[in-house]
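This protein record is not my work; I was only asked to verify it. Where you disagree with what is written, explain briefly why. This is what I was given:
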Amino acid sequence: MMWLYPLLNVLQLIFLVLWGVFWISLSGVLMVLTLNGNVPLMMARRLWAPMHWRIAGAHMHVEPLPDIDWSQPYIFLMNHQSAMDIPCAFAALPVNIRFIAKHVLQYVPFLGWYMAMTGMIFINRSNRRKAMQGLKQAGARIRAGKSILAFPEGTRSTDGRILPFKKGPFALAIEAQVPIVPVAIEGSGRALPTGGINLRRHDIRVKVGMPIETRGLTGADRDALLLRTRDTLIQLHREIGGPGAVDEAIARQGPEGRSTPSPPV
Protein backbone atom coordinates (compact mmCIF):
# COMPACT_ATOMS: atom_id res chain seq x y z
CA MET A 1 0.00 0.00 0.00
CA MET A 2 3.03 2.29 0.20
CA TRP A 3 2.57 3.13 -3.48
CA LEU A 4 -0.58 5.05 -2.51
CA TYR A 5 1.42 7.81 -0.79
CA PRO A 6 3.35 8.96 -3.90
CA LEU A 7 0.12 8.78 -5.90
CA LEU A 8 -1.72 10.86 -3.30
CA ASN A 9 1.14 13.38 -3.32
CA VAL A 10 0.97 13.73 -7.10
CA LEU A 11 -2.80 14.23 -6.93
CA GLN A 12 -2.39 16.88 -4.23
CA LEU A 13 0.14 18.76 -6.35
CA ILE A 14 -2.13 18.61 -9.40
CA PHE A 15 -5.07 19.94 -7.38
CA LEU A 16 -2.90 22.73 -5.93
CA VAL A 17 -1.77 23.82 -9.41
CA LEU A 18 -5.32 23.69 -10.78
CA TRP A 19 -6.64 25.55 -7.73
CA GLY A 20 -3.97 28.22 -8.18
CA VAL A 21 -4.67 28.68 -11.89
CA PHE A 22 -8.41 28.86 -11.25
CA TRP A 23 -7.96 31.34 -8.43
CA ILE A 24 -5.64 33.63 -10.37
CA SER A 25 -8.02 33.60 -13.35
CA LEU A 26 -10.93 34.43 -11.05
CA SER A 27 -8.90 37.23 -9.46
CA GLY A 28 -8.31 38.74 -12.89
CA VAL A 29 -12.04 38.77 -13.56
CA LEU A 30 -12.70 40.35 -10.16
CA MET A 31 -10.11 43.05 -10.84
CA VAL A 32 -11.77 43.91 -14.14
CA LEU A 33 -15.25 44.00 -12.60
CA THR A 34 -14.39 45.89 -9.41
CA LEU A 35 -11.23 47.84 -10.38
CA ASN A 36 -10.18 47.16 -6.79
CA GLY A 37 -7.13 45.08 -5.87
CA ASN A 38 -8.43 44.63 -2.32
CA VAL A 39 -11.28 42.37 -3.45
CA PRO A 40 -9.14 39.46 -4.72
CA LEU A 41 -6.86 39.82 -1.68
CA MET A 42 -9.80 39.62 0.71
CA MET A 43 -11.11 36.53 -1.09
CA ALA A 44 -7.61 35.03 -1.07
CA ARG A 45 -7.60 35.30 2.74
CA ARG A 46 -11.02 33.72 3.10
CA LEU A 47 -11.05 31.17 0.29
CA TRP A 48 -7.80 30.53 -1.60
CA ALA A 49 -5.41 30.27 1.35
CA PRO A 50 -7.52 28.00 3.63
CA MET A 51 -8.28 25.68 0.72
CA HIS A 52 -4.60 25.63 -0.27
CA TRP A 53 -3.29 24.22 2.97
CA ARG A 54 -6.26 21.89 3.31
CA ILE A 55 -5.51 20.37 -0.11
CA ALA A 56 -1.89 20.04 1.03
CA GLY A 57 -3.07 17.99 4.02
CA ALA A 58 -1.77 20.43 6.62
CA HIS A 59 -3.60 21.64 9.71
CA MET A 60 -2.98 25.23 10.74
CA HIS A 61 -3.50 26.51 14.27
CA VAL A 62 -3.37 30.27 14.86
CA GLU A 63 -2.76 31.46 18.41
CA PRO A 64 -5.21 34.15 19.64
CA LEU A 65 -4.49 37.38 17.78
CA PRO A 66 -3.29 40.42 19.74
CA ASP A 67 -5.77 43.18 20.51
CA ILE A 68 -4.43 45.87 18.18
CA ASP A 69 -5.82 48.40 15.72
CA TRP A 70 -6.05 46.27 12.58
CA SER A 71 -7.28 49.23 10.52
CA GLN A 72 -3.87 50.90 10.43
CA PRO A 73 -0.98 49.81 8.15
CA TYR A 74 1.78 47.58 9.52
CA ILE A 75 4.91 45.89 8.28
CA PHE A 76 4.48 42.23 9.19
CA LEU A 77 7.79 40.37 9.48
CA MET A 78 7.60 36.57 9.39
CA ASN A 79 10.25 33.87 9.64
CA HIS A 80 10.47 31.76 6.48
CA GLN A 81 10.46 27.95 6.31
CA SER A 82 8.50 26.94 3.23
CA ALA A 83 6.37 28.01 0.27
CA MET A 84 3.46 27.11 2.58
CA ASP A 85 4.22 30.26 4.61
CA ILE A 86 2.45 32.45 2.04
CA PRO A 87 -1.03 30.85 2.18
CA CYS A 88 -0.62 30.50 5.95
CA ALA A 89 0.09 34.24 6.29
CA PHE A 90 -2.92 35.07 4.10
CA ALA A 91 -5.18 32.87 6.25
CA ALA A 92 -3.79 33.88 9.65
CA LEU A 93 -3.82 37.67 9.32
CA PRO A 94 -7.22 39.44 9.33
CA VAL A 95 -6.08 42.17 6.90
CA ASN A 96 -5.11 42.37 3.25
CA ILE A 97 -1.35 42.15 2.84
CA ARG A 98 1.08 42.83 0.01
CA PHE A 99 4.21 40.71 -0.02
CA ILE A 100 7.76 41.79 -0.67
CA ALA A 101 9.03 39.07 -3.01
CA LYS A 102 12.04 38.14 -5.12
CA HIS A 103 11.90 39.85 -8.50
CA VAL A 104 12.15 36.56 -10.43
CA LEU A 105 8.61 35.67 -9.32
CA GLN A 106 7.15 38.37 -11.55
CA TYR A 107 8.16 36.27 -14.57
CA VAL A 108 6.33 33.12 -13.42
CA PRO A 109 3.18 32.63 -15.55
CA PHE A 110 -0.09 33.22 -13.67
CA LEU A 111 1.66 33.75 -10.31
CA GLY A 112 3.61 36.79 -11.51
CA TRP A 113 0.50 38.23 -13.16
CA TYR A 114 -1.51 37.83 -9.94
CA MET A 115 1.21 39.39 -7.82
CA ALA A 116 1.56 42.38 -10.14
CA MET A 117 -2.15 43.13 -10.40
CA THR A 118 -2.70 42.91 -6.62
CA GLY A 119 0.16 45.29 -5.80
CA MET A 120 2.89 42.96 -4.56
CA ILE A 121 6.38 44.45 -4.41
CA PHE A 122 9.29 42.86 -6.27
CA ILE A 123 12.84 43.29 -4.95
CA ASN A 124 15.95 42.61 -7.04
CA ARG A 125 18.48 41.86 -4.31
CA SER A 126 21.34 41.42 -6.79
CA ASN A 127 21.13 45.08 -7.85
CA ARG A 128 21.36 47.72 -5.14
CA ARG A 129 19.69 50.46 -7.21
CA LYS A 130 16.76 48.25 -8.17
CA ALA A 131 16.49 46.93 -4.61
CA MET A 132 16.18 50.48 -3.31
CA GLN A 133 13.55 51.23 -5.96
CA GLY A 134 11.55 48.26 -4.72
CA LEU A 135 11.78 49.45 -1.12
CA LYS A 136 10.64 52.94 -2.17
CA GLN A 137 7.66 51.32 -3.90
CA ALA A 138 6.88 49.44 -0.68
CA GLY A 139 7.06 52.73 1.24
CA ALA A 140 4.55 54.27 -1.16
CA ARG A 141 2.19 51.34 -0.58
CA ILE A 142 2.43 51.82 3.19
CA ARG A 143 1.83 55.56 2.99
CA ALA A 144 -1.29 54.75 0.96
CA GLY A 145 -2.55 52.71 3.94
CA LYS A 146 -1.52 49.24 2.75
CA SER A 147 0.05 46.64 5.02
CA ILE A 148 3.21 44.85 3.85
CA LEU A 149 4.58 41.41 4.74
CA ALA A 150 8.25 40.57 4.32
CA PHE A 151 10.51 37.66 5.22
CA PRO A 152 13.49 39.42 6.84
CA GLU A 153 15.73 36.35 6.52
CA GLY A 154 15.49 36.73 2.74
CA THR A 155 15.57 32.96 2.28
CA ARG A 156 13.97 29.81 3.67
CA SER A 157 15.48 28.10 6.70
CA THR A 158 16.22 24.44 5.99
CA ASP A 159 16.24 23.36 9.65
CA GLY A 160 13.61 25.67 11.14
CA ARG A 161 16.07 27.90 12.98
CA ILE A 162 15.67 31.63 12.45
CA LEU A 163 18.46 32.99 10.24
CA PRO A 164 20.18 36.42 10.23
CA PHE A 165 17.92 39.31 9.26
CA LYS A 166 18.45 41.65 6.34
CA LYS A 167 18.34 45.37 7.07
CA GLY A 168 15.99 46.51 4.29
CA PRO A 169 12.64 45.93 6.04
CA PHE A 170 13.80 47.86 9.10
CA ALA A 171 15.02 50.81 7.06
CA LEU A 172 11.61 50.74 5.37
CA ALA A 173 9.73 50.67 8.69
CA ILE A 174 11.71 53.64 10.01
CA GLU A 175 11.33 55.61 6.77
CA ALA A 176 7.55 55.00 6.73
CA GLN A 177 7.23 55.42 10.54
CA VAL A 178 4.86 52.45 10.80
CA PRO A 179 4.93 49.71 13.45
CA ILE A 180 6.46 46.29 12.85
CA VAL A 181 4.37 43.25 13.78
CA PRO A 182 6.40 40.02 14.23
CA VAL A 183 4.74 36.81 13.01
CA ALA A 184 6.18 33.41 13.94
CA ILE A 185 5.42 30.23 12.01
CA GLU A 186 6.50 26.70 12.87
CA GLY A 187 5.87 23.38 11.09
CA SER A 188 5.51 24.63 7.53
CA GLY A 189 9.02 23.43 6.69
CA ARG A 190 7.99 19.89 7.54
CA ALA A 191 4.66 20.18 5.73
CA LEU A 192 6.51 21.18 2.54
CA PRO A 193 10.31 20.96 2.86
CA THR A 194 12.50 23.49 1.08
CA GLY A 195 13.56 22.33 -2.37
CA GLY A 196 11.05 19.49 -2.47
CA ILE A 197 7.54 18.76 -3.68
CA ASN A 198 6.76 16.05 -1.16
CA LEU A 199 3.73 17.30 0.79
CA ARG A 200 3.44 15.89 4.30
CA ARG A 201 0.61 15.97 6.80
CA HIS A 202 1.88 18.15 9.59
CA ASP A 203 0.55 20.71 12.05
CA ILE A 204 1.48 24.33 11.35
CA ARG A 205 1.35 26.87 14.15
CA VAL A 206 1.28 30.66 13.80
CA LYS A 207 1.63 33.30 16.49
CA VAL A 208 1.33 37.06 15.94
CA GLY A 209 3.11 39.40 18.33
CA MET A 210 2.38 42.91 19.52
CA PRO A 211 3.42 45.87 17.33
CA ILE A 212 6.92 47.27 17.75
CA GLU A 213 6.72 51.05 17.44
CA THR A 214 9.03 52.93 15.07
CA ARG A 215 7.67 56.44 15.56
CA GLY A 216 10.52 58.86 16.20
CA LEU A 217 13.24 56.39 15.18
CA THR A 218 15.92 57.37 12.66
CA GLY A 219 18.36 55.50 10.47
CA ALA A 220 20.77 55.36 13.41
CA ASP A 221 18.27 53.12 15.22
CA ARG A 222 17.96 50.58 12.38
CA ASP A 223 20.21 47.86 13.76
CA ALA A 224 18.79 48.16 17.28
CA LEU A 225 15.28 47.81 15.82
CA LEU A 226 16.40 44.74 13.88
CA LEU A 227 17.83 43.10 17.00
CA ARG A 228 14.76 43.88 19.08
CA THR A 229 12.42 42.51 16.42
CA ARG A 230 14.50 39.38 15.92
CA ASP A 231 14.64 38.66 19.66
CA THR A 232 10.86 39.08 19.86
CA LEU A 233 10.31 36.79 16.89
CA ILE A 234 12.64 34.14 18.33
CA GLN A 235 10.65 34.19 21.58
CA LEU A 236 7.33 33.87 19.73
CA HIS A 237 8.79 31.06 17.64
CA ARG A 238 9.92 29.13 20.70
CA GLU A 239 6.48 29.55 22.29
CA ILE A 240 4.95 27.56 19.40
CA GLY A 241 7.63 24.86 19.40
CA GLY A 242 10.35 26.48 17.28
CA PRO A 243 13.99 25.35 17.66
CA GLY A 244 15.54 28.79 18.20
CA ALA A 245 17.92 30.70 15.97
CA VAL A 246 21.45 30.87 14.64
CA ASP A 247 23.92 33.11 16.49
CA GLU A 248 24.47 35.67 13.75
CA ALA A 249 21.69 38.25 13.93
CA ILE A 250 22.45 40.66 11.08
CA ALA A 251 23.08 39.49 7.52
CA ARG A 252 26.32 40.91 6.19
CA GLN A 253 26.39 41.25 2.40
CA GLY A 254 24.37 42.50 -0.58
CA PRO A 255 21.87 45.39 -0.86
CA GLU A 256 20.01 44.05 2.16
CA GLY A 257 22.62 41.60 3.44
CA ARG A 258 23.06 37.91 2.79
CA SER A 259 22.26 35.12 5.23
CA THR A 260 25.02 32.80 6.41
CA PRO A 261 24.03 29.92 8.72
CA SER A 262 25.72 29.82 12.11
CA PRO A 263 25.55 27.58 15.20
CA PRO A 264 22.23 27.56 17.11
CA VAL A 265 21.46 29.89 19.99
The longest strand covers residues 180-186. The chain has one domain: 4-239.
